[in-house]
Amino acid sequence: MFRHVKQLQYTVRVSEPNPGLANLLLEQFWRPAGRTSGRMSLLYARFKR
């Protein structure tokens, strides 16, 4: 039903690591967003089984 291809659409070049930006991106990606986040986590857990 679903097919996951772990490949980027284009090549990414990183000149130097930036831990501050990495933490900011992770915070924005994983930050809880109220009821929607809770519902999505329940939905994910249901399909994960």
Q: Could you characterize the architecture of this molecule?
A:
InterPro entries: Ferritin-like, Ferritin-like_SF, Mn_catalase. The chain starts with 18 loop residues before the first helix and ends with a helix. It has two helices and no strands. It has helices spanning 19-30, 35-48. The model has no long low-confidence stretch (mean pLDDT 78). The protein is mainly α.
Features:
mainly alpha; 0% strand; 53% helix; 49 residues; flat
Largest sheet: none
Radius of gyration: 15 Å
Strands, count: 0
Mean pLDDT: 78
Residue share in β-strands: under 5%
Tell me the distance between the termini: 15 Å
Strand pairing plus helix content: what structural class?
mainly alpha
Number of helices: 2
What percent of the residues sit in helical stretches (DSSP H or I)?
Answer: 40-55%
SSE diagram, text form:
Elements: H1 19-30, H2 35-48
Describe what is shown at a glance.
The chain is mostly helical.
